Amino acid sequence: MKQLLLATAIATLVTACATATSPTGRTQRVGAVSQAELNRLGAEAFAQAKASNRQGGDARQNAYVRCVVDAVTRQLPSEWQAQWDVALFADESPNAFALPGGKVGINTGIFKVARNQDQLAAVIAHEIGHVVSRHHDERITRQLGTQTLLGIGSAILGSQYGEGAAQAANQLGGAAAQGLFLLPNNRAQESEADILGQQLMARAGFDPRQAVNLWENMIDVGGARGPAFLSTHPDPRERLDELRNRATELTPVHQQARASGRAPNCG
């Protein structure tokens, strides 16, 4: 009976989800929620962020960010080309995000590390890369699947060994899933967003070499970190090497974009 219950749960999860291929060719499990639902959740989260945080920056800064977002998003596939909403938040932490439904949030603190339009484009293109790579869909699908299987596993142990065993299994299982399943996937997503973001910025006419400078600035501001295997981001030095190598490969793309008239002048 226990094996049947687990097999039924796994079959239900597999049926509800689908296999997709990311822009870099990576196999993904997606589909726990529809794109329309993802867009709705993105819009709700964006509205909450604007309601909870003071929007900042002067008119020049807002126009600057808007210009870079527009230049990057014009290079997206047609299904992602709808108008993207942008908010600039009065927050000194150097952070940014993008959400399904075409939402971009930028903290004013990002200007401490993104010191020119090309570096800002690297930030924005990276965050948009998460959206168009369906990373939010992938994470929700994986997390829902993990929570479902953990709940079943703890229920089985509880019926066999009591409530204490069920609680312990759920706690330990959650820690194992976080360390061995969810976080490694997040690192893969970060690397993928780096790849797609650097491609997008080059096609938009921004210098892909400036992505290297951006992350060097990030490291300078961020200081020492914990071990790479406990982080959702790739090791900083490995990341810089990869960005440098791609920048060399993308230089002809950047040059062609400029020759074709894609030469942003955002300020």
TrEMBL record:
Taxonomy, superkingdom: Bacteria
Regions crossing the membrane: none
Keywords tagged on the record: Hydrolase, Metal-binding, Metalloprotease, Protease, Signal, Zinc
InterPro entries xrefs: Mito/Outer_Membr_Metalloprot (IPR051156), Peptidase_M48 (IPR001915)
Region of interest: Disordered: 247-267
Record's cofactor remark: Binds 1 zinc ion per subunit.
Signal peptide: 1-20
Annotated Peptidase M48 domain residues: 60-246
Cofactor(s) needed for function: Zn(2+)
Record family assignment: Belongs to the peptidase M48 family.
The protein's name in its UniProt record: M48 family metallopeptidase
Species for this entry: Lysobacter korlensis
The organism's taxonomic lineage, starting at the top: Bacteria, Pseudomonadati, Pseudomonadota, Gammaproteobacteria, Lysobacterales
